[in-house]
Amino acid sequence: MGTRSGALPLLYSVSVTSAGRHVKIAWALLRYYFRLIPRDWYRCAPFLPIPPANYVRWRLQTAYGEHRPRWTEIARDLWQFGDWLRG
Question: Is the pTM of this model over 0.90?
């Protein structure tokens, strides 16, 4: 009563395709992140490659308004944005 022999290769190809798609989305988000980092970020405190706080605040305000959702929903929206970037 195992799986049919034809189902296993199909399942494997779907999972490989899905994993490849996720890697492409992650790569698109990583490239976008590096575009957000200010030049010479290492010259001023806190010495971390993070986007400017006022930009992040503005993005959250324009995306969600006064009632920002939970971080899990923001992460889902970010992942969908990465899928759109990969486009």
Answer: no
**Following DSSP, what letter does each residue of 48-76 receive, concatenated?**
S----HHHHHHHHHHHHTTS---HHHHHH
Token pair belonging to 28: 């698109």
Amino acid identity at 86: R
**Residue 2 in domain:** no
Q: Are the CB atoms for 67 and 74 separated by under 8 Å?
A: no
- How do residues 49-74 score in pLDDT, each as one tens digit? 888 889 888 988 998 998 888 888 98
Please report whether residue 56 resides in a domain: yes
11 falls within a domain: yes
